[in-house]
Amino acid sequence: MKPRHRKLAIAGGLLAAVGVAVALVLNAFQSNLVFFFSPSQVAANEAPSGRTFRIGGLVEEGSLKVKGTDVQFVITDTAKAVPVRFEGILPDLFKEGKGVVAQGQLHDGVFVAREVLAKHDENYMPPEAADALERAKHGDPKLAESMPKEAPQ
Question: Is the pLDDT of residue 148 over 60?
Answer without folding.
Answer: no
